[in-house]
Amino acid sequence: MQKQKFSRSRMLISGALVAGVMAVGGYAFTASNTVPNTKAGDGSGTISGYTVSSVHYGLNATNPATLDSVSFNLDSTPASGSHVNAKIDGTWYSCTVPTGTPNTSTCDTTADHPAVSTAASLEVVAAD
Asked: Which helix (H) or strand (E) holds 89?
């Protein structure tokens, strides 16, 4: 029996063919990830305040020397989920968020009944 000799070029072609088959086979069995579409962005906007008007203090019916509430109008209706608070002489009170016109918020102060005679400052914070 005679041994066949492979030429050098046949060996290179055979090796390249085997490498190609392995590469294609390896690619077919690799894991893949699924990535959803996403968004990213950058932007800016102006922060402006509300104009407070028509401030009204509700007096306690039994003791009119104390406050039961404070109400006021905002120049526009805050967005849904907004917060409105008022501070009278250092104590904060939660207020209703207006939903229509007029844009009136009312803050219940019955927990502390601030005295009318000593009330010196009102601060309103409204944030979208």
From this structure: none
pTM of the model: 0.66
Alpha helices (H) along 7-124: 8-28
Query: First CA to last CA across the chain, in angstroms?
Result: 94
State the Rg of the chain over Cα. 38
Q: What is the pLDDT of residues 48-65, one digit of tens each?
A: 999 999 999 999 999 999
Q: Which residue's entry shows tokens 């690619």?
A: 27
**Closest C-alpha to 117, from 63, 52, 72, 44:** 63
Inter-residue contact 67 to 57 (CB < 8 Å)? yes
Asked if 103 contacts 75 with a C-beta cutoff of 8 angstroms, the reply is: yes
